[in-house]
Amino acid sequence: MKVHPIHAAPLAALVLAGAWLLRGASAQEERRKSVEKLLAEMEKLRGSRYNVAREEGRFLNMLVKMTGSRRALELGTSNGYSAIWLGLALEEIGGRLTTVEISPERAAEARENLAKAGLADRVRVIEGDAHKVARELEGPFDFIFIDADMGNDLDYFNVLMPKLSPGGVMLRHNAIRYASTMRDFLEAVKRHPELDTVILSVTMDDGFSLSRRRKAP
Prior knowledge:
alpha/beta; Rossmann fold; 217 residues; globular; 7-stranded mixed β-sheet
């Protein structure tokens, strides 16, 4: 039987490639743990920051990936909890998020948390009144998440509906517990001829209105 010699150079290259792969996997795992720790810390402030529940954050993350959304908008950043869930999904598919927060303190807190999550270049935080900012933003968006200023939701809808891409989705948080407060908005999304709308919950407590804009036949 003829034995072929193992050349040192190719073997060294294989070892080096394996080391780089292991290093990359290790870095990814370290980041995953870091982000998980950050989210857990932020969840302690959920009541004062009016964040979505963890199950709702996971739902938003999954929905972005399921729809393949690449240009997302969030109204109501707070400290960036939901923006992190959205940003992580958008990172996987090469998308970007613009999120709007009226409070300077919360906007600064969100930027800090997003930087800790490694998403500073993926998520743009705009400080300002979402009603005004929404008018200035150039569409289209294929994912719109509204979690701000209950009671004035109809204005958001009127401004953003023309900027929602065909096939795009629009979500409104708190659509179960505070349905009476946002009655005008909910009626608008249910009756609009270009939208299919459902009300759903992943916590069996509060939930979302979820609307999808139909594509032209």
